[in-house]
């Protein structure tokens, strides 16, 4: 794999670390100071590996919650994403993404136009110190930004995004009955992630909620014809790039959670839940609880997913977040709004169906308990 050489930096020594010179325009943001000294040091060490004889000094960290330092590198008329994991979990996720992109690029069932939407791997040094990965930087604007600023184009953006991912599903998917063994492979390991990472889920209401989710998914999906194929796994609006104004999809990114034999319906459902967050300000927990009670509304042109697919999508989402970063397990606000209400609703609905005492739907959000406290001060607050 060809190794690339960044352009030299023209920064003054001793001044603030700014985005100029070697890696301008990082993350579509205005050039600014590095947020943390650790990020600045890591960026410089990565740059020395990219070009040992004259390493650039000026890089920029990502914005928001992430265990991966992402930088944009412009080299002539080409641009690249340089990703350096901060944790072992993040390094494993980048290795999975590298392998997935390689498998998709080599999959003869996919046409060249669709494969051109992928960020092509350029260099992988995940065994280096610090580790990093270089990918092609895909052009375009994330769909979540377009949806926020051009709500009048919601139906068009949704159709373009759904069409792009369904091309993958049609090319690689086959319809088969959802057997108990197939569902166990999708559900069991992801429920185990919640039980392992969240002590609240190991006993009491949390464990009861996990058991209710398992039973509802098996009851609602066993025997149901299901399309199985390459599944992105995190097909949120932020991972779909489009030209602006929206006319075509220009990139599909963040493939660390993709699997070749997943339930492809979770991709479209993930996009719709992300759309609901942007359009209506509703988080995942509130939307999934509403879907379990009355179904999930969908914009024109998108099929209405069954409640069990919404629940399976939620399980895919929360388990993936817990696997990729410890921050989610320690963020009580995320747990209180995204995890606890869904587990409580699954247990309540099961009790109601059995004629139990919990037949009335609870008012408000999560039940009182250890997760109803405010998040610990100083913790980063994940979204979704």
**CATH topology heading of the largest domain:** Aminoglycoside 3'-phosphotransferase, Chain: A, domain 2
Main beta-sheet strand count, sense and barrel state: 4 strands, antiparallel
**Strand percentage, roughly?**
5-15%
CATH superfamily heading of the largest domain: Aminoglycoside phosphotransferase (APH), C-terminal lobe
Model regions low in confidence, pLDDT < 50 over at least 5 residues: 5-34, 357-361, 363-381
Binned, the helix content reads 40-55%
Number of domains: 2
Q: Helix/strand-derived class? A: alpha+beta
Distance between the termini: 35 Å
CATH-derived architecture of the largest domain: Alpha-Beta Complex
Mean pLDDT: 82
* Rg, alpha carbons: 22 Å
- Widest beta sheet: strand line-up: 1-2-4-3
Number of helices: 11
- Please, what is the oligomeric state? single chain
Write the layout of secondary structure elements.
Elements: H1 37-50, E1 68-75, E2 78-85, H2 88-105, H3 112-115, E3 121-125, E4 132-136, E5 141-142, H4 143-149, H5 154-172, E6 174-177, H6 180-197, H7 204-221, E7 225-231, E8 240-242, E9 249-252, E10 259-263, H8 265-280, H9 284-294, H10 307-324, H11 332-353
Antiparallel strand pairs: 1-2, 2-4, 3-4, 5-8, 6-7, 7-10, 8-9
Helix pairs in contact: 5-8, 6-7, 6-10, 7-10, 7-11, 8-10, 9-10, 9-11
What can you see in these coordinates?
Helix content is 43%, strand content 13%. The chain is an alpha+beta fold and 384 residues long. The chain folds into 2 domains: 26-136, Phosphorylase Kinase, domain 1; 141-372, Alpha-Beta Complex (Aminoglycoside 3'-phosphotransferase, Chain: A, domain 2), CATH 3.90.1200.10. A 4-stranded antiparallel beta sheet has the order 1-2-4-3. Strands 5-8-9 form a 3-stranded antiparallel beta sheet. A hairpin with a 6-residue loop joins β3 and β4. The longest helix is centred in the last third of the chain and has 22 residues, at 332-353. It is globular. 41% of the residues are buried.
